[in-house]
Design a protein that fits this description.
381 residues, 3-stranded parallel β-sheet
Length: 381
């Protein structure tokens, strides 16, 4: 064989060998995070000014960081809480990846953002024998009455074995659907179905193994049950909370690599009491602004107070990003009273969430709802 052909063959074999993981369960990760064109696109669309010029200089090389948390994985482009979404998050530099934890009919833990979102995040409505088990069956839209299409399918409606039969899709639905197929074909235009043809659902245990293999840390969120607790007789909230932590202990994961989350303060205090090594960096997710009238500028509305939370053993608060920000008299973004008080009490803050809302030129949505911050804060995204 001519030398040049031999060299070409060796080169091709080298490339092939490099592309094949050493073990079947290994996943190829880039040497440096690959963030794709979107950040540059967003900067290109900014108004000219000092901030745009500064951000335009951020051209890499990029690095993995715990400051970047894969919320539902990489859910803007990949079906949330799937193998593909978690892997994409790691490839883009997420140092911590989230599995939202809920349970099936047979009390097995799985990764879903909500216990009752299978009708918008999976193909369950087009699997007749499983659709028949949904809490609320598919009801078509009725243009004559203006009634919208609806359904409600929960992980607690089906067993783990049945859950494994499903395929994930991008979160969304068509409210004007006449058939289950039309209902499930409702991905918002600001997301993409480019990578959504075969999303692989994950159990909680599988997510632990995968995220560990990706070299990332963990931030599981114990989702609020949408069924009465205790479930099925004796499955209490405390058993549910303990089961989630037990999975990390069984897998040999260091507590320092796990940031357990819950919107339920009782869950966090349960971990502080029963699993102190995990509890000392558990995250109390903030929703008192929605349920208790908390105003980030008015300390008298914070019940419990920052000092009281700290005294109970809470170490980290997780508020929506706008709660941590305000504008000063010069229209500069500065920490809110809420953020300053948390720091003064010795609490850490982990804010949520970026890249979940709709187009920014239309206001974004929930995460960008603070109107007096919108024009300035969005420029920092």
């Amino acid at each position: 064989m001519p030398a040049r052909h031999c060299s070409a063959l060796l080169f091709a074999l080298c490339l092939l060998t490099a592309a094949i993981p050493a073990k079947a369960q290994d996943i190829a990760l880039p040497r440096e995070p690959q963030i794709g064109p979107r950040p540059f696109y967003l900067i290109d669309k900014m108004k000219d000014g000092p901030l745009k010029r500064e951000l335009s200089q951020c051209t890499g090389p990029f690095r993995k960081t715990d400051f970047s948390i894969g919320h539902r994985g990489a859910a803007l482009e990949f079906p949330e809480h799937t193998k593909e979404s978690y892997v994409a998050a790691a490839r883009m530099g997420a140092g911590i990846i989230e599995c939202d934890v809920t349970f099936t009919k047979d009390r097995e833990l799985v990764c879903r953002h909500s216990q009752c979102d299978l009708h918008t995040t999976t193909n369950i409505l087009t699997v007749p024998e499983l659709a028949a088990k949904c809490s609320q069956p598919f009801t078509p839209a009725d243009p004559a009455t203006g009634k919208k299409a609806s359904a409600k399918c929960c992980t607690s409606d089906i067993t783990l074995a049945e859950f494994r039969r499903l395929t994930a899709k991008m979160d969304g639905f068509n409210p004007d659907a006449k058939t289950p197929e039309e209902y499930q074909n409702g991905t918002p235009r600001w997301r993409t179905d480019l990578y959504a043809n075969s999303g692989t659902l994950m159990t909680h245990d599988e997510s632990i193994a995968l995220i560990k293999a990706l070299g990332a840390k963990f931030t599981p969120e114990l989702k609020a049950p949408e069924v009465p607790m205790p479930f099925d007789g004796d499955y209490t909230q405390e058993k549910y909370a303990s089961q989630m932590i037990a999975a990390y202990k069984k897998a040999g994961i260091a507590p320092s690599d796990v940031f357990a989350q819950s919107f339920n303060l009782a869950d966090v205090l349960h971990w502080v009491k029963t699993e102190p090594e995990f509890g000392k960096q558990a995250v109390y997710l903030e929703e008192r602004y929605e349920k208790q009238g908390l105003d980030p500028s008015k300390p008298e509305t914070w019940k419990p107070s920052m000092a009281e939370l700290k005294a109970q053993g809470v170490a980290i608060l997780g508020p929506p990003i706008p709660m941590m920000l305000t504008l000063n008299d010069s229209k500069e973004i500065v920490p809110s009273e809420y953020a300053k008080a948390a720091k003064a009490a010795g609490l850490d803050l982990i804010g949520w969430s970026l890249e979940r809302d709709g187009p920014l030129h239309k206001g974004g949505g929930f995460y960008h709802s603070r109107s007096r911050l919108r024009s300035t804060a969005m420029a920092t995204r």
